[in-house]
Each structure stands twice: as structure tokens, then as C-alpha cells.
């Protein structure tokens, strides 16, 4: 707990110095750029004789969202990077991970009408650190169920995209081959994530994907970011076998640096679990946002 508090204090001291530095404004208006990064903290403390009950705890969550969009003539190139990571420390327990998401998407498009493009994209999804099932003990320790690239998903897609505004897009991909990675041998002993026994990669060549993205300031100093993906393997064509992923980020700025953020993730993937998985976090902390030019 002491080292955790020292880390948090250091970040609070350093953040205003770093965030106060103004980035140079690009001269090329064919680019639209946005960047936001935040550090949120939640804390609770109880005396040993607090009769109402409770557990002293501290949680630290950080996030980073970066987007760069290029548009010139019929050509466009959109890039989106998202990182979420959090730690939680309850009294009497070791440090535990509360959230962990690493996401990157890059897409080239060529318009054939005002609102429609043909496109090719690359999409990557994984996590940074190991994940454990704390209620299931294994060999004297917590059961390891995930880590970096275990699982990891790399999806290539081609198709048509509906993009009426820079803030919203809908992609329809009749061809979206996906690779599922499982490179950690210790994770593979406990979870397979659809990867065949003895393999480290699962290849799904005949597949389709639908992806929707929304990123906009919906009110003064309030920004909503949504990403939805549906993936279907043609060889297992059935509604129950469609993978669904929904990610939400709602950020409200109290002032130039203080923000309140709500983040949520929902997942349905029968290769992982028969039920819907979800995670959610709400925090108050420090945030820095930089917006670039809009497209002329």
C-alpha cells in the first residue's frame, strides 16, 4: 500500500507539469487529431472499530485515447488507439488488476459516394498484464486465465463503410479473417479461447464482421466514445455463435484538468464463456485533452 501511495503522489506531482506543455498545432488541415489521457483514483478508509463495516481500499485507473484521421479527396486513413489499465488494493489482500484493455484499429478507405467508402482495415485487441481467477487456487496460487496475447485477436477486414460524419462510422465486412493468439503456456493449461489443443494460433479465414464507432462531444465538456463489433465465423453460422463486443467511455470535464469518467466493457463470446461478461469503472481524476483541426 505504501508503494502504491507513493506512485500515485508522484503521478499527481508530475501530471500538471507534463499536461501544461502545449503541443504544436499541425499546419495540415487534412488531419483531424484528438488525444486524451487520464488518471483516476478511488479511496476508502475505515478504522478497525468501525461498526458499520467496510474494507479500506485504494484504486488507481488510467486511460489513454488517441485518434488520427486523414481525409484528402476520395482517400481516407483512420487510426484509433485505446488503453485502459487499473489496479485495486483492498486491506488484507495483494494488489489486483481491475481493468486491462489494449486496442488498435487502422483503416484505409476510398469513397465512391458522399457517405460510402470501400475499405480495408486491421484491428488488434489484447491486454497488457496477467489476469487471475482469485477464487480458484492452483498450485498454491491464484489461477492464471489470461495475459498479453493470451488471448490476442488480429482481424483483417474488407468491405463497405457508411460514414456520414467524422464522428460516426458503420463498417460491413463480408470478408474478415481473424487470428486468435494463445502464446502463454500457463494460460493455455486453464483456458483455450477457441484455440485448438496443442496450437498457439487459431485461424478463421471465412468470417464476417460488423463494426460501429461513435466519438463525439455530446454536451459541453462531455464526450462519449462507443465501439461495437460483431464477428461471425461462416463455418458456425448461427446467431448464438456471433461474438459481440461493446466498449463505452463517457468523460465529463469539471475544469481544465479534473474529470469524471465512466468506462464499461461488455463481451459475449461462446469460446470464452456461455454468459455475457462485463466490466465497469467510475472515477474522478486528472485528465488532459488535445483536439486537432477538423476537416475542411
SSE inventory with pairings:
Blueprint (H helix, E strand, L loop, with lengths): L1 H18 L11 E14 L12 E16 L2 E16 L5 E16 L4 E11 L4 E8 L2 E6 L5 E14 L2 E8 L2 E4 L3 H4 L12 E4 L2 E13 L2 E12 L9 E11 L4 E11 L8 E15 L5
Antiparallel strand pairs: 1-2, 1-16, 2-3, 3-4, 4-5, 5-8, 6-7, 8-9, 8-10, 9-12, 10-11, 12-13, 13-14, 14-15, 15-16
Question: What would you say this structure looks like, in words?
Answer:
There is one protein chain. The protein is mainly β. The protein has one domain: Porin, CATH 2.40.160. 7% of the residues lie in helices and 60% in strands. The chain is built from 2 helices and 16 strands. The protein has helices spanning 2-19, 185-188, and strands at 31-44, 57-72, 75-90, 96-111, 116-126, 131-138, 141-146, 152-165, 168-175, 178-181, 201-204, 207-219, 222-233, 243-253, 258-268, 277-291. The strands form 2 sheets. A 12-stranded antiparallel barrel has the order 1-2-3-4-5-8-9-12-13-14-15-16. A hairpin with a 2-residue loop joins strand 8 (152-165) and strand 9 (168-175). The longest helix has 18 residues, at 2-19. It is flat. The N and C termini lie far apart (51 Å). The model is unreliable at 1-26 (pLDDT under 50).
Write a brief caption for the model.
The chain is mostly beta strands. 7% of the residues lie in helices and 60% in strands.
